[in-house]
Amino acid sequence: MEIEHIPGYLAGANSDPLMVVMAVILVVAILIGGVLYFKLHAVPEHIAHGKNHTQIQLIAILTILALFTHNNIFWVAALVLAVVELPDFLAPLKSIAKSLEIIAKAKDSTEKQACPEQPSAEQVSNKESN
């Protein structure tokens, strides 16, 4: 057969247009797949940034672990941490401590007003030594 009689979609003597098209499609598909993969792994971080989450560093570490180890449990844990708001246990304890401090100061000031001339331990020891 002569070259002039070969159909256009088959490889010619010098080039293979179908292979070139498939190579371009493969490279584009790999790039798009990689971008989607990295975007998917960053979803918990984006959620945490949007909510201004307090545990953002832990979420970032879990997503990186999931990316490099391919253990999905890390990604699921990061997603759960990003979505669920953890209760603030420290604020009530600080409030209790502040209230107790105010009560203690008030009690000290009332005791000083009730007994203004109460000698200190040093004054008592000085009087006993004289």
What would your notes on this structure say?
- The structure is a single chain.
- By secondary structure, this protein is an all-alpha fold.
- The chain contains six helices and no strands.
- It has helices spanning 17-41, 43-51, 56-69, 72-83, 90-114, 121-129.
- Helix 2 (43-51) runs antiparallel to helix 3, helix 2 runs parallel beside helix 4 (72-83) and helix 3 (56-69) packs antiparallel against helix 4 (72-83).
- It is rod-shaped.
- The protein starts with 16 loop residues before the first helix and ends with a helix.
* Radius of gyration over all CA atoms, rounded: 37 Å
Q: Structural class of the secondary structure composition?
A: mainly alpha
Mean pLDDT: 82
Q: Please trace the helix and strand order, writing H or E for each element.
A: HHHHHH
Q: How would a textbook summarize the main sheet?
A: none
- Note the gap between the termini: 133 Å
Oligomer: single chain
General form:
rod-shaped
Strand-residue proportion: under 5%
Are there runs of 5+ residues with pLDDT below 50, and where?
A: none
How many runs of DSSP E, i.e. beta strands?
A: 0
Separate helix tally: 6
- Residues in helix, %: over 70%
Strands, helices and their partners?
Blueprint: H1 17-41, H2 43-51, H3 56-69, H4 72-83, H5 90-114, H6 121-129
Helix pairs in contact: 2-3, 2-4, 3-4
